[in-house]
Design brief:
Layout (H helix, E strand, L loop, with lengths): L2 H8 E2 L1 H4 L8 E3 L9 H9 L6 E5 L18 E5 L4 H9 L2 E3 L7 H9 L2 E8 L7 E3 L7 H7 E8 L13 E3 L5 E4 L16 H10 L8 E4 L3 H11 L7 E7 L1 H8 L15 E6 L3 H7 L5 E3 L2 H4 L2 H4 L5 E6 L2 E3 L4 E2 L2 E2 L2 E2 L6 H10 L4 E5 L3 E3 L6 E3 L1 E2 L17 E4 L2 E4 L5 H9 L4 H13 L10
Helix pairs in contact: 5-6, 7-8, 8-9, 14-15
């Protein structure tokens, strides 16, 4: 039987396909921009007759139709590997929960811990002549999902870019139970970069001089990493490499400016390695069938041992709060969950161990509390009660705010307190000094 004939035999409607989901099932919705569309709408239409369905997914770029099912919590629970703002709101609606993890271990979680999954459904690129459906920008751990799933349903989207890679970036038609040809929606645009603020630019101007020619980069998402990427694109840096869990628009800008060659990478030389991607159409167009870009499973990309082998590896990530001990919370503020650990632990430690490696945690020194209208400091004496420590004080390297940068490596508690307070907004420095004294981590001989 030809692949085309097998395709025709497995082709069905979204409504028919979702009949595979039963009450009590564990269902996987893929990852970020690969989350299903037509299948999601069809499942929402019959969710009222189902109970106790557990769904895994993460980094949603649009609100799924199932989230708007009446009394959603009585029908399903959404379990997220990493939360976007959409999922964060769903926590408060009573049906969404976070799964703590080190992102690098996610494929292993499926293969070694979860092992069995009832149904997996996600969007893919159209089948190629060899019978393969490419995962597009959401590869990450989807091959591991397929390895565990009893039933795999793919939703074909002709707008999905084909993301080339080394391995585990597609599923074969022989492993697929049903094929749905969806409505071919345009790729979801992941916001967050926005226009760079004065604070973003100040931080970027402090970080970029620390990056050397031939360095290999990992960037997070947001206006601050975007500002750093733009500054790199406008710089005279050369032969930069990319080895990042998330591929963002800033890398496209750097590539088109000729800053990225990957010539100094010890492996995957000349290729930009990433686990998943999300951003604007510019990014999806750049990734499509581009042999320079290498989609690989997150267990490969985020592996600390692998990252630590890359000389001059430079990791740039954000934070919610930092305390005077050097503990970083990037996933919650108190008991209010915000996102997830992601790969921050992996890349902070990988950069920390790499020869010439540098890890930067970047954030604004303060923020405006929307509820009270008051300015609050991101640098605190201790983290808010209930906050989750994402990066520990023992592997922290550089902290950067608009007021400066500070390398905490090898610093005692009082040196850390002094350095971090100098990065705080001036309005809070005296208060932080007073608290540091109470905590016995401030030397009276220090300048005030």
């Amino acid at each position: 039987m030809s692949y085309q004939e097998e395709y025709r035999q497995k082709l069905t409607t979204a409504g028919e396909a979702v009949k595979a989901v039963k009450s009590g099932d564990w269902l996987d919705y893929g990852w970020t921009v690969c989350s299903p569309n037509a299948l999601d709408k069809a499942l929402a239409a019959r969710m009222g007759e189902l109970t106790d369905v557990n769904i895994r997914g993460g980094i949603l770029t649009r609100r799924p139709a199932i989230f708007d099912v009446p009394d959603a919590a009585s029908h399903f629970a959404w379990n997220s590997w990493h939360m976007s703002g959409i999922e964060r709101k769903a926590i408060k609606e009573g049906f969404a929960y976070y799964i703590p993890l080190r992102y690098s271990e996610l494929p292993g979680y499926y293969r070694d811990c979860i092992k069995t999954l009832d149904v997996a459904m996600f969007q893919v690129a159209p089948m190629d002549e060899h019978g393969w459906f490419n995962f597009g920008p959401g590869g990450s751990h989807l091959k591991a999902v397929c390895d565990c799933a009893k039933t795999i349903i793919v939703e074909v989207n002709k707008n999905m870019p084909v993301c080339l890679g080394g391995f585990e970036n597609c599923v074969h038609i022989s492993d697929v139970a049903m094929i749905v040809e969806g409505e071919n929606p345009p790729m979801e645009i992941l916001g967050g970069a926005g226009t760079a603020s004065e604070v973003d630019l100040a931080v970027a101007n402090l970080v970029v001089p620390e990056i050397s020619n031939g360095a290999c980069l990992q960037l997070g998402i947001g206006s601050m990493p975007s500002a750093i990427g733009k500054l790199i694109a406008e710089s005279d840096l050369k032969d930069l490499g990319v080895h990042t869990e998330m591929y963002v628009d800033a890398f496209v800008d750097m590539s088109k400016a000729g800053r990225i060659t990957g010539a100094c990478k010890p492996f995957d030389r000349g290729r930009q390695t990433y686990a998943f991607a999300a951003g604007t159409q510019k990014l999806y167009d750049f990734l499509n069938n581009n042999p320079e870009c290498m989609a690989a499973p997150v267990s490969y990309v985020n592996d600390i041992a692998r990252v630590s082998q890359i000389e001059n590896f430079t990791s740039i990530n954000g934070a919610v709060d930092i305390d005077l001990y050097g503990q970083v919370s990037s996933e919650s503020s108190g008991i209010n969950h915000i996102s997830g650990a992601g790969g921050q632990q992996d890349f902070v430690m990988g950069a920390y161990l790499a020869k010439g490696g540098k890890s930067f945690i970047c954030c604004s020194s303060s923020f405006m509390d929307k509820k009270t209208g008051q300015l609050k400091s991101r640098i605190r004496p201790t983290l808010v009660e209930g906050s989750v420590v994402t990066a520990t004080r023992t592997n922290l390297h550089w902290i950067v705010t608009e007021y400066g940068k500070f390398n905490v490596k090898g610093k005692s508690t009082w040196e850390r307190a002094e350095g971090l307070i100098a990065l705080a907004h001036p309005q809070f420095r005296d208060e932080l000094i007073a608290e540091a004294e109470k905590m016995h981590i401030w030397r009276r001989s220090n300048k005030r």
